[in-house]
Amino acid sequence: MRLSMLTKLKAYTYCSILYMFLFNARVEEFKYLGTTLTNQNSIAEEIKSRLRSGNAGYHSVQNLLSSTLLSKNLKIKIYRTIILPVVLYGCETWSLTLREERKLRVYENMVLRRIYI
Questions:
Q1: Are 95 and 41 in contact (CB under 8 A)?
Q2: Domain check: are 24 and 59 in the same one?
Q3: Which of 29, 40, 54, 61 is deepest in the core (most CB within 10 A)?
Q4: What is the pTM of this model?
Q5: For residue 26, is it within any domain?
């Protein structure tokens, strides 16, 4: 019987979590469902990772966003449907400091500036 990659990934994640609880292992950080969890509840690395992923998403659609044939409204819709969800994935659980909030605002302004220029 062949197992799919998703099934293997689920089994690996389940086994690693089970190992942590059974053997009371302490780790500095743990990647779970695409989100990095740390023992200090710090999300600085998570935000850096999300911004890198957002940049990758931006560069994948950069030719569309810099096109003069598309309207500004359509470019904003592309931004909201492709780039923004990647950056804000898991943000419901974040407790932001002012510094992290500023990083997100700076990133958003940078992308919007590129769209409007």
A1: yes
A2: no
A3: 54
A4: 0.70
A5: yes
Q: Judge if 67 and 87 occupy the same domain.
A: yes
Specify the number of domains making up the chain: 2
pLDDT in tens, 83-99: 999 999 988 888 889 99
Please give the C-alpha separations between residue 117 and each of 1, 70, 91, 111, 112, in angstroms, as whole numbers: 55, 13, 29, 10, 9
Over residues 19-23, mean pLDDT: 62
Residue 97 belongs to what domain range? Answer: 43-116
Helices (H), 1-95: 5-22, 44-60, 62-65, 72-78, 84-87
In whole angstroms, what separates CA 63 from the centre of its chain?
A: 22
**8: how many CB neighbours lie within 10 A of its CB?**
10
